Amino acid sequence: MKIEQHLSKNELTDKQFLVIALETVKYLGWRIRFISDAGVIAYTDNGEHSWNGEITVKLNESGAMVQCVTISNLLNDYGRSEAAVHAFIFSFEKLKSEISEDEVREKYKIYKKDFVPAYEDTLKPDIRPKFHFFGGLLSFFKPAKGYFFTPILIVLNILIYLIMVCSGVAVFEPDAASMTTWGANATIYTLGGQWWRLITSCFIHFGFIHLLLNTYALAFVGLFLEPFLGRVKFITAYLLAGIFASVISLWWHDNTVSAGASGAIFGLYGVFLALLSTNHIESSMRKGLLTNIGLFVVYNLVFGSFKGGIDNAAHLGGLLAGLMIGYAYYPALQKPGEVLLKWLTPILSVTVVMLVSAVIYVNLANSDKVTYQKQIQEFYKIDTDALKVLRGQENNTGEELVRALQHGKSAWSNGIELITELDKMNLSNRLHLRNQTLIKYCRLRIKTCELIAQNPEQGINSYSPQMQQINTRIGKVLDDLK
Fold it and tell me: Any transmembrane segments, and where (predicted)?
């Protein structure tokens, strides 16, 4: 049997009303099931009585609705629900005049620690995101309520890929040059003033498989995360994480040509992980999502560590940005009615992430790393020119060959001087080691010229044991440089 009765608020605030209601439940010896800022649910059975009813006190604008439902289903339960409601109201009125304002403040602080999160509060309307896909696979590509920017991003990535392929870019494994032309994040160009590559690189992909994997990952996380965040917070997190991932990729790698949406997508997974570590998402969903997303992140980071061609620096950068953004969003998500928080959190997130990204970008642009990468192009030009001159003498054995050999020796000697100067810069250990390998390469090339010059009649394709040994060493050095 269910009994309901209205209890007037009079001049009490919601905080005062809630504290007095909770104290009333304790005064009557009832067992609290759960509490929130919307009310309390308790059981009249405290472990000593056979009769059990569920008491619900739900706050509204004018007071509260006090309800009792019999749940023990015994023959002698008749009338006990009504008696329980009357007992609650009588005790509430009695305690109302006995609890001071100071006690209300102190007790509210204690009770607040046990409030259930909004998504688990049965006293409030169900505000959990709901997904309704009736169009099969095509539904993942159509904007809908709670799923707006995710399909737009997916379609945009696919369209850009198709345009690239139609323009002549390889379907499966496009080269670095073509990707750079389409806006990839390339160290020299990006740090040379083309900052927009930090963004454009997030929308182009290294082939069909790369696009397919990122499309799946984006659809999965967007389907669950965008309804929680809303349109503005979702697209803001995506773009900020993508930019930060691109910046971290530049900072980590000595020289890179990188592209793809994975940094931005890792950012969304980072936002999700941040929220899953709080009580914002209901516990029934939290464990499963945390397991799936945690496995995705760990697997991809570990896989990227062992497989070449995967930019784990961008993945980690996006993940870090996402975690920071997720925690920054949390206060606004907990209080969706606060207009100031609703707009303040995205603005602060944009400000902080863009400021940090700008500082890193400017420092990198003015660093020796960029100067080195620009100057090293001169070395590659010297090497290419010297090899071209020598290969043009394959069928010669006379003076022209001798002049070509002298040109090669001079070119690679200049290369040694150039690398020696570049090695004085403030560079990473990897670049210093690479410099030593380049110098070793130049010396081997000079040694080759000297050997051929000793017996020019044999031409540059000499197969003497000493020449074969040097060529083998050159091959090993070139492998090391790769």
Answer: 147-172, 203-225, 232-252, 258-276, 288-306, 312-331, 343-364
Q: Please report, for residues 371, 386, 442, the alpha-carbon distance to residue 414 in angstroms, rounded to integers and kept in the order given.
A: 18, 11, 9
Closest-CA residue to 148 (of 271, 263, 234, 241): 234
Residue given tokens 């996006």 in the structure block = 318
CATH class of 2-120: alpha beta
Token pair of 122, please? 């049965």
For helices 14-27 and 80-96, what crossing angle results, to 10°?
A: 120
The closest of 185, 11, 1, 19 to 98, measured between CA atoms, is 19
Take residue 54 and report the two structure tokens written for it. Answer: 């569920």
Q: What is the pTM of this model?
A: 0.70
CATH class of 148-180+201-251+258-349: mainly alpha
Task: Give the integer Cα–Cα distance in Å for 228 and 435.
Answer: 51
Let me know: does 351 contact 343? Beta carbons within 8 Å: no
Q: Report the alpha-carbon distance of residue 353 to residue 271 in Å, rounded.
A: 14
3-class SS of residue 51: coil
Instruction: Report the candidate in 308, 326, 304 with the shortest Cα–Cα distance to residue 316.
Output: 304
Residue 105, C-beta contacts closer than 8 angstroms, at least 6 positions apart: none
Q: Residues with Cβ < 8 Å from 91, sequence gap 6 or more?
A: 24, 27, 28
Q: Which of 139, 149, 151 is nearest to 159 (CA)?
A: 151
pLDDT digits (tens, 9 = 90+) for 265-304: 999 999 999 988 887 776 666 777 777 788 878 888 887 7
**Running DSSP on this structure, what letter comes out for residue 10?**
T
The predicted structure's pLDDT at residue 137: 72
